[in-house]
Design goal:
CATH class of the largest domain: Alpha Beta
Helix content: 25-40%
Strand order of the largest sheet: 3-2-1-4-5-6-11
Bound molecules: nicotinamide-adenine-dinucleotide
Order of helices and strands: EHEEHEHEHEEHEEEHEEHEHH
Number of strands: 13
Largest sheet: 7 strands, parallel
Number of domains: 2
Shape: globular
Structural class: alpha/beta
Number of helices: 9
CATH superfamily of the largest domain: NAD(P)-binding Rossmann-like Domain
């Protein structure tokens, strides 16, 4: 990142990934003008401790961008705002708020061809048993994933129509790391299992812990998102660790980091549509964005546990 006077807008900046992105941008580009838009439906101002930029508290699904910003130009927009509770089955709310927010943002960005980097999701792939490749068709199993698949369709359509406008979609996999506690139930399993173990309970996972996830540390997601800003052309990419690890393995890794020795407690899985396997194929994102994840599960969890439980002094 070079230009010192860049003007960058981040939607969803009070949320988990958004706040990590904003604070990293601020650190790397101290002269940049940063603006966050968030309506706090799941975010929390506490995630932005130390933030020195502007904050617009607005709902993007109804925001009139021209009225809010006039002719103000941004060099790039990172769009992370979204309903992120995948178990919210209100089909109208999920699709309306997620898709209309994106449509309004694209309409604002179009005249100046403002670069847009937006968060899609691995959920768009639905059930998988091998690494997902970007060219796999969308097979959303819930309405959250459906809303993300529609966003991908809108982005593809706009990129086809306007070849001089760069729009990059990122299908984040299973992200964990600092500043996610505000999410409550939708926070990562790394967070929830560690809380159970820290309070002396056996970690509870669905029978028999063999389901696998591409757990990716938030700092890798931030790096990949920042790289996407420099993309030479539009595209939609996976962003993950590239590895599928089981919940049983995750508990081993947590035991190691926390200095505990808990055995998992297996419980029935109540979900009819459950992703038993997620893994990002990183070929495209490596080749086109130069993305390389730096945190294997062991390293990411160790780093996160130090942040989450500083009193341990580990
Ligand atoms: N965390 C993950 O594992 C993961 C995986 C795949 C995709 N994603 C995507 O990454 C993005 C960030 O997710 P997160 O984990 O940080 O979740 P989060 O819930 O912490 O962040 C979302 C933020 O968007 C805000 N927001 C939601 N709807 C809004 C609206 N209409 N107007 C204004 N603000 C609004 C919320 O208040 C919140 O601060 C989302 O788009 C999510 O779908 C996350």
């Amino acid at each position: 990142m070079s230009s010192s006077d860049s003007s960058i807008l981040v939607t969803g900046g009070a949320g988990f990934i958004g706040s990590n992105l904003v604070l990293t941008l601020q650190e790397r580009m101290p002269e940049a003008q940063l603006t966050v838009i968030d309506d706090f439906r799941s975010g929390d101002f506490k995630n932005l401790a130390g933030y020195r930029g502007d904050f617009v508290a607005q709902n993007l699904a109804t925001l009139d961008w021209r009225q809010q910003f006039g002719d103000e130009k941004f060099d790039a927009i990172f769009h992370l705002a979204s309903i992120t509770d995948t178990t919210l089955h209100d089909q109208f709310a999920q699709v309306h708020d997620n898709v209309e927010s994106f449509r309004r943002l694209l309409n604002f960005a179009k005249p100046n061809r403002t670069r847009v980097v937006y968060a899609s999701s691995a959920a768009t792939y639905g059930a998988a048993s091998t690494a997902s490749v970007e060219t796999n068709g969308a097979a959303p199993a819930n309405v959250y994933a459906f809303s993300k698949a529609i966003m991908d369709n809108l982005a593809n359509r706009a990129a086809r129509e306007f070849q001089d406008w760069i729009i990059v979609g990122l299908r984040y996999f299973n992200v964990y790391g600092p500043r996610e506690a505000h999410k409550g139930v939708p926070a990562s399993m790394v967070y929830h299992l560690s809380r159970q173990m820290k309070s002396g309970q056996r970690p509870r996972i669905f029978k028999h812990g063999e389901q696998q996830r591409d757990f990716v540390y938030v700092q890798d997601i931030v790096e990949g998102s920042i790289r996407a800003r420099a993309a030479k052309e539009s595209g939609i990419y996976n962003l993950g660790s590239g590895h599928a690890r089981s919940f049983n393995e995750l508990i081993d890794v947590l035991n190691h980091s926390l200095g505990t020795d808990f055995k998992p407690e297996y419980i029935e899985n109540p979900h009819a549509h459950y992703q038993n396997y997620t893994q990002a194929d990183l070929t495209q994102v490596r080749n086109n964005l130069g993305y390389e994840p730096r945190y294997p599960l062991e390293t990411g969890v160790a780093d996160y546990m130090k942040w989450l439980y500083p009193a341990d002094g580990k």
